[in-house]
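hey m, so remember when u said the tokens were messed up on ur end? i reran from scratch. heres the input so u can diff it against urs
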Amino acid sequence: MNLLASLRYLVALHEHRHFGRAAQACHITQPALSNALRALEKEFGVVVVRRGRSFEGFTPEGERVLATAQRMLHEHQVLQQDLSSDAAHPRGTLRLGAVPTAMPILARFAAQLQARHPGIVPVALSMSSQALEAGLENISLDLALGYTERMPARGGPLRAWPQYVEHYFLLRRASRPKGSPRGLQIGPPMAWADAAALPLCLLTPEMHNRSLVDGAFRAAGATVMPAMETDSVLTLALSVVAGQVCSVLPGALVDAVRGHDGLEALPLTGPVLTTPIGFMSHRQVQPTRALDAALALAQDPDWLQHAAAHSGLLVAD
């Protein structure tokens, strides 16, 4: 039995919660994955996986094996990167996650990191706040970009690096006179109470960003009945482009559609909603060479200036 491979299959099963998808992610057949997990159970003399017609979770003993597997695979990655890198030329995979509304900034960060260190292979994933926090805690993520305001409430061994402060806009189609500047324009401020009267496409209620937006509407004394709901930030923007609805977007997403003609974004006020966004990592886990390089970039003044220019309270062109 290849112990390291079997532990990798176990972690893949935890991440995908499905035998077939875990096998596919590991590039093996499902019977091969099942056989490896049974060999692992034989090695430790305990039942690790609850089996039924489908994956039903892990036994208490399996949870302990899983936690050890996650630590061992991380230490293996640290050693691999240490042996194949030096301080000036880090090499290896770096798993990055971001809440959906911060993905445009994570994409910029990953691209700049790869340009600075060609030996690093960033893997950029869009995830919910809960999934980001779980990924950091179980060491399946190296670095997460999300809502740092959630950290004190949850506690735990996470450390944050502030990146930017998000502001919110109403995105709508705009009719402009002939000869007006092309591309998306930043318009005059609009009150949240006035925005509530418009047909809106909003994120679905379980998403943390939606709870922030709903809180701003409540603070303005407004009740909102969305015309559309979605769990996709791309759909938020495209629904405005292709339909008759408006949407509420943070600055990072507004910046991502700035090249689209016929749209305008109005800063929302009364109240002014601001949300701190930052990178988070696990303070008790030894960083890989790739993570060290990423954290250096995350604190670089030039990068922070770049992130601020493409998020937050955007400046009109």
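this time it looks ok to me. The chain is about 45% helix and 25% strand. if urs says something different then somethings off w ur setup not the seq
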